[in-house]
Amino acid sequence: MDFAHSAKAAEYLARVTEFIATEIEPVEPEYHRELARLDDPWTVLPVIPELKAKARERGLWNLFLPSVSGLTNVEYAPLAEAMGRSAIAPEVFNCNAPDTGNMEVLHLYGSPEQQERWLTPLLDGEIRSAFCMTEPDVASSDATNMAATAVVKGDEVVLNGRKWFSTGIGHPNCKVLIFMGLTDPDAHKYLQHSMVLVPLDTPGVAIERMLPVFGRHDEPFGHGEVSFTDVRLPASAIIAGPGRGFEIAQGRLGPGRIHHCMRLIGLAEKSLDLACKRASTRTAFGKPLVNLGGNRERIAQARIAIEQARLLVLHAAWKIDTVGAMAARSEISQIKVAVPNMALGVIDMAIQLHGGAGMTDDFPLAAAYSGARSLRLADGPDEVHLGVIARLELKKHLS
Amino acid sequence: MDFAHSAKAAEYLARVTEFIATEIEPVEPEYHRELARLDDPWTVLPVIPELKAKARERGLWNLFLPSVSGLTNVEYAPLAEAMGRSAIAPEVFNCNAPDTGNMEVLHLYGSPEQQERWLTPLLDGEIRSAFCMTEPDVASSDATNMAATAVVKGDEVVLNGRKWFSTGIGHPNCKVLIFMGLTDPDAHKYLQHSMVLVPLDTPGVAIERMLPVFGRHDEPFGHGEVSFTDVRLPASAIIAGPGRGFEIAQGRLGPGRIHHCMRLIGLAEKSLDLACKRASTRTAFGKPLVNLGGNRERIAQARIAIEQARLLVLHAAWKIDTVGAMAARSEISQIKVAVPNMALGVIDMAIQLHGGAGMTDDFPLAAAYSGARSLRLADGPDEVHLGVIARLELKKHLS
Amino acid sequence: MDFAHSAKAAEYLARVTEFIATEIEPVEPEYHRELARLDDPWTVLPVIPELKAKARERGLWNLFLPSVSGLTNVEYAPLAEAMGRSAIAPEVFNCNAPDTGNMEVLHLYGSPEQQERWLTPLLDGEIRSAFCMTEPDVASSDATNMAATAVVKGDEVVLNGRKWFSTGIGHPNCKVLIFMGLTDPDAHKYLQHSMVLVPLDTPGVAIERMLPVFGRHDEPFGHGEVSFTDVRLPASAIIAGPGRGFEIAQGRLGPGRIHHCMRLIGLAEKSLDLACKRASTRTAFGKPLVNLGGNRERIAQARIAIEQARLLVLHAAWKIDTVGAMAARSEISQIKVAVPNMALGVIDMAIQLHGGAGMTDDFPLAAAYSGARSLRLADGPDEVHLGVIARLELKKHLS
Amino acid sequence: MDFAHSAKAAEYLARVTEFIATEIEPVEPEYHRELARLDDPWTVLPVIPELKAKARERGLWNLFLPSVSGLTNVEYAPLAEAMGRSAIAPEVFNCNAPDTGNMEVLHLYGSPEQQERWLTPLLDGEIRSAFCMTEPDVASSDATNMAATAVVKGDEVVLNGRKWFSTGIGHPNCKVLIFMGLTDPDAHKYLQHSMVLVPLDTPGVAIERMLPVFGRHDEPFGHGEVSFTDVRLPASAIIAGPGRGFEIAQGRLGPGRIHHCMRLIGLAEKSLDLACKRASTRTAFGKPLVNLGGNRERIAQARIAIEQARLLVLHAAWKIDTVGAMAARSEISQIKVAVPNMALGVIDMAIQLHGGAGMTDDFPLAAAYSGARSLRLADGPDEVHLGVIARLELKKHLS
């Protein structure tokens, strides 16, 4: 195991960290306040394109994509952690979900036409995208439950169904979504589905509502419930051809989970920072909070938990880098379970140390909690990943 | 120990349960949807006064108040549990916080004038009220930190300071608040504070903002941050006279915590119901969710946790009824710690079994989670109550 | 719910508590030290029969048996708790497992001859007994796995098989055991097994070894592995006739679990006592341990956990008393899961507060831990009981 | 971070693993059974010196000592893990505590005479040693509580006091112990204590008793309570001179904790192996245990927990290797807390999956539990280490 970084990676980390500290953190609280004051918060405030332009100018742009940055997963991981401390940093560096995953898909599987039409403006940060996989009417943790269809008819593909938790679809710049649907129920179970590129303004596509997630709409990007009614597209909109949806989905998730998890670790570190500061400065019963009851123990346990989680993610990244996502399935599922739960524990502790203020939006903790909680369900609930880990573990004993 | 109910209490329970099932539950989902659609959700929808009128007509009104209902705490507890299953039921029966606590205070300590002006319309459900104790600038878990002042000058009392988490202050019918402030810093530590009745429209009272709690404003009642700037009132607005604020606050909390905790138990039962239903009907990997992995164990653990919590609250109620709130301090702190944490565990489990839907407002679970979480801080954080319990426990060993 | 005690029960409790405090506790430490010094610890030290005689003389004898004491389960429960504080008290009052369960079986199902031969000397405390149900070669949590046989041939019953965790079989006074085996594999699944009374000296019965349980042999009673090879007995040795073993086993367990759980609660209370004393008197870093870190919080959490567990057991006892063990299946399984886990947490905390001493036998904590741990497996592992609770919970939602 | 191994380290690991698999594991169960059958289990069975000779012959000897093996802490760690799977392997490779720590001390601080007299036979595996630091009468977690004295009088040092948990002192080959005592109460707090080499047969040294640890005496090495009464030794028996005890103790602990923790990880892996095997082969309710309830989830959680713990230890080892034990204080305390607790969880789960058998000594699980539990107290209880971690964490925020 070797989690060491190249000189280039170390330099990127230093520059990203400095950019966040000097350009983003000073303006972020006001960004959130201003957004909250808007009548229509589904708005891109001017500070975002300004920051994006600066980041791009400095070469801190699309670093998630190995072909751009030359970074391995192990090397990109600390950048993702750094970005995770801020709610807007990922977008500023054009490294935000779900666009990163969609760009990877287009990069790896897109046709030249698909790349030109969609990948180029995504890489330029000019448009945004969504990913439509989860469905409201079935337990989507079991992919074979998927009910939406992408039927090839002649030189067209026809989409029907209903999706939800389509993150980013509310963003004013969202122009395209990737739809996953059933193409051939008679094919091998991993060859039944297709992924299709769908311009958002295609007839038959309707955003039925934007979903509250733990009471928040997460403007301006949001999470949509989207219906597809006889949506007709040329067959060339299918990514990599019919029946390859499952294969693409699998590949999409490995690095994506590294990113999600490292961002959560950044969020947990930020929360622990805030907890330490608050507990050192607030006083009750004649002492700073940090000297009351079990507060120091909780801070220490948070430190241990964060360290373990970070090492586990780096280890999974190292496995993806060295043996590939397929051979790292257990490790990827391990971080998918461990990291959100760890982050929830740390954030919850920080909220408690902040008293009532921790529940408001005066601190980023309450929003962080909701975000972390959603990641115990997004991309497969804990329980499904535990099942994967157990299956691979038990396999070692069959012989 | 005797947690048995009189025939009268049993009859009340049957009638309250039936009212909720037939009058409230059928209309509640649409109530929430309608409220969410309003441009100004700080509105009392017509269904609320209609339901209130019906409840009052049937004699299911102000049952929380022993002098009205003749019920002990043990007897009222299951009514509070039943009401806790619905977000609006407590108000429908005129049994909602913080009005219940304020009515108790006025009933026990109010002058005839105070009672006529404020208690009567509160008991009639015509107005609502708020309670202003917690402050944003200090750790309010330590009451001696309180910075707001209620200074008696001649025949006036002058209020200054800033309060927050003043629940209910956003309600269109909120007309009065109870303010707690420091009157005499030189008095004995339990005789320094006063409680003052403040009409909401008194000059110098300003609602600075309505606070989001885990991203929700909880319209139409809400939680306010309120400033008091040279607010002048006649000294007769002081409840029970200067210096008795602490005494009143203590008395206010015992039964109030029973109510809060029993409502949470109702919420936990409701969440377990929903979890069982969802897990029995959704299918993944060819089985209902309930037959997958540890789901049955989690349902069983939830059942155990709820039973234990309910018995603990009944036990505390029985102690209040038989030996008084003072002698039941440990028991009251025990439920204050145990019940919200229990409820959070059950609700979180139910959310997980609902998948993404559990995070939206299609089910009452996400809102329930935020509400239960806030009760780990409201009325004193877990840590303070654990300290009380430990102190009383260790005292047994001193001799 | 009514957990109140009759005057008679209250009086018994006062007398049992006083007897333990004045007669047992002063001599118990030396009892254990003396036993540990013996070359052959499978010995009944004279103090035991002396204490038994005293207890019997004072009428504190066989109180577990309703027909003797006239106590309900709710009333007996606090006596069991009191006895649970001492490792030898249950035997002193002739209220120790597994004899209590065996006496109940004989009382309810024994023939007059069986009662005269075995129940009378057991009630007199002259002999002891064992119960042989669990088997080493199968997962005994599933009763249908049972492999031992009790085949009726003419007027004889022939036993074959291997049992283990036969508690008490090492006791010098153990004269009889109850054996459970398969009689008729073709009968209804609840009518296949029989219980047979087996004198310990019957040919074919061999104690293969005494089992260490977490490194302890629990002398002088112990836990045996016992083989049965063509053990022939008259058919009259079958309790209540062939095929009724399952029915008897079910009935045996309800009150027995109340006893086990209440004794564990006594043990947890004792452990919390010790923890409070130790933590108040030992000093580190200039403070008593109780003022360091999270120690007070842990003491408070232990208090909450014990209170909840006791109430849960009383509730289960009340259900057995009022609607019977069959209707109280969920409640009985609930305490079977909740109480040992609670006790383990409290004892472990107490061990930690005792430092190294807590691991030795200078305090009863290390032995208490092993004993409590074994009760997460004995009479069915946690997981099986959780399954029962979940099944009954989900049934409420089928309609 | 770089946890990679040199070719030499990888080769050692392969050879140690193979030696354990082919030479130790096949004979270990019979070793334990034979020892348990002995009247006097304080005996070195012949298989031990035979295995030691073989290991030494193959160059798998004293690998813990960098000056012998040339291995870093990161490189030695997996060897310790491999040895941790067996109760006797550490001794076979002459890598067992407390001798390893004592050899390190002698290697780093011993005079040539001390090294010749004690280090040489220890390195040869001819004698064993003990370490006497913890005291029965004070909370030894606070080093300043130490009451034993090592007073320099002329050219002699005189020892008085009482120590316990002196591991290894019962071993027939134990010839020397290292005693720590107070020399100069007026010196700076880190310069008050001395370490003294004490031949076991020195007049005034008395093993008062061998301590049971969770009911086990851990023969043939054991844990002693030792009294020192006017024990007189030449001043040359002091290691590195008077007043350096604290400094030596600190240095002794860093690598020692890596060893302990890695052995625990080996034990946890072994336990998980056993759990997987048992749960795959035992059947209840018509299914292998592994397909019942939450068993797979528990196996998965164990895998996650082990991976995180191992990475945390490797990280601490890497810090010791690269920046030294002083700069790695937080990391060392982190593993001291995290690893024993992790191991306890995994072992407990494995015990539960083994049913009653898990509590006996038919499997190494019950003994493993006791051993792991003792490590939550040995070398400082969890709570003290959490305090260290919190202090260092909070320091980052002072500025």
Automatic annotation (TrEMBL), chains A, B, C, D:
Residues 11-126 form the Acyl-CoA dehydrogenase/oxidase N-terminal domain. GO terms for cellular component: cytoplasm. One of its GO terms (molecular function) is flavin adenine dinucleotide binding. Residues 130-231 form the Acyl-CoA oxidase/dehydrogenase middle domain. It comes from Actinokineospora fastidiosa. SUPFAM superfamilies: Acyl-CoA dehydrogenase C-terminal domain-like (SSF47203), Acyl-CoA dehydrogenase NM domain-like (SSF56645). InterPro entries: Acyl-CoA_dehydrogenase, Acyl-CoA_Oxase/DH_mid-dom, Acyl-CoA_Oxase/DH_mid-dom_sf, AcylCo_DH-like_C, AcylCo_DH/oxidase_C, AcylCoA_DH/ox_N, AcylCoA_DH/ox_N_sf, AcylCoA_DH/oxidase_NM_dom_sf. Its cofactor is FAD. Residues 243-391 form the Acyl-CoA dehydrogenase/oxidase C-terminal domain. This is Acyl-CoA dehydrogenase. GO terms for biological process: fatty acid beta-oxidation using acyl-CoA dehydrogenase. Transmembrane segments: none annotated. It comes from the Bacteria. Keywords: FAD, Flavoprotein, Oxidoreductase. Pfam families: Acyl-CoA_dh_1, Acyl-CoA_dh_M, Acyl-CoA_dh_N. Belongs to the acyl-CoA dehydrogenase family. Homodimer. The keyword Hydrolase does not apply.
